[in-house]
Amino acid sequence: MPVVERFQFQHLANPAGSIVVAHGERDVPFAIRRIYFLYGVPADQMRGRHAHKTLTQIAVCVRGSCRFCLDDGHERTELVLSKPYEGLVIRPMMWREMSDFSEDCVLLVLASDAYDESDYIRDYEEFKNAVRAR
Ligand code: T46
Predict the structure, then answer these.
(1) What is the Å distance from ligand 1's center to 20 Cα?
(2) Residue with the nearest Cα to atom 3 of ligand 1?
(3) Any catalytic annotation for residue 50?
(4) In the predicted model, is pLDDT for residue 55 greater than 90?
(5) Predicted confidence band at 1 (pLDDT cuts at 50, 70, 90)?
(6) pLDDT score of 35 more than 90
(7) Confidence of residue 80 (pLDDT cuts 50, 70, 90)
(8) 123: pLDDT strictly greater than 90
(9) pTM as predicted
(10) Whose CA is nearest to atom 27 of ligand 1?
(11) Ligand 1 atom showing the smallest separation from residue 49 Cα
């Protein structure tokens, strides 16, 4: 799997404005079991700093922008999300860090499962060891 996997939402634009649409299991490659969004994140804050064992997610900045750093244990890549119709697929066992949130940033996340703290790996060394053990 590539480290960076983008997701194009269906984008219906006309002079009256735009609509962005996604159907779970049809467009999005999983059943959407949860959505959440981050907003009001101060510009000097970093979030994430973890990987998930099984969760798959798609993150999209529906307003503003933020920087993602993705790390699969072998390769680390950075990118900026800034388009409300361009998502980022984050597969299991991908370390992520989010930073440089714009003041108006709203980061929407579609998730394949319910919140479960036991699915998180929050220690980078533990993450690297888990990747090595695969
Ligand atoms: C991810 C990135 C992109 C819940 O109780 N339920 C939830 O559904 C979520 C997402 C979080 N929480 C609690 C757990 C923590 O006590 O909210 C607190 C902050 O969560 P966390 O530090 O994990 O937030 P981020 O912004 O570092 O990470 C979040 C998601 O947790 C994570 O899955 O991939 O956004």
Answers:
(1) 24
(2) 48
(3) yes
(4) yes
(5) confident
(6) yes
(7) very high
(8) yes
(9) 0.97
(10) 48
(11) 27
> Which residue ranges make up each domain of the chain?
5-133
CATH number of 5-133: 2.60.120.10
* Longest CA pairwise span in the chain (Å): 53
For 88-128, give the DSSP string: EEE-SS-EEEEE---TT-EEEEEESS---GGGEE--HHHHH
Terminal-residue alpha carbon distance, the chain? 14
Give residue 83's identity as a one-letter amino acid code: K
Is beta strand 66-71 parallel, antiparallel or unpaired with respect to 120-121? unpaired
Please tell me which residue in 23, 50, 52, 74 is annotated as part of the active site.
Answer: 50
**Neighbouring residues of 32: CB distance < 8 A, sequence distance ≥ 6:** 24, 110, 111, 112
What pLDDT is stored for residue 110 in this prediction?
Answer: 98
